[in-house]
Amino acid sequence: MYNSKVQLRNSDIVLAYTFLRLVFGINMFVHGLVRLPNIGGFVESQVGLYKEIAIPPLLIAGPAYLIPIVEFAVGLLLILGLQTRKALIANFLLMMTLMFGVCLLQKWDTAGSQLIYNIVLFLLLAGCSFNLISVDNWLSRRKG
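Above: the chain's sequence. Below: its structure in token form.
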């Protein structure tokens, strides 16, 4: 029989939030992890993508060096649930930069994928009150 009284349990939302934070954190962490050992090659590939656009290579290379570092750091923080809110905000700032670049290149399929990342970021940031299985929560309980 159909149950018309479906209710969301707080414990399920906390668990779902934790899993989404972990999956997204792993995604970002590995993005950075695989790029860091060859950061020069990554930067060179990014500069090459923008060679047809009238932007000085230095303006591409500078931010490109930061991308893997930010991905790695943000991913690690999200996996741990440490400084979660700040990590999500930093990730939003990174995504704004990436979205600007992708739109300059008119890579609309990639822009669509990045919008999905931003929806996940929105859900995680808006749901920070459910971040109970985390180092952040453990530290706040220790402070009393």
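The radius of gyration is 18 Å.
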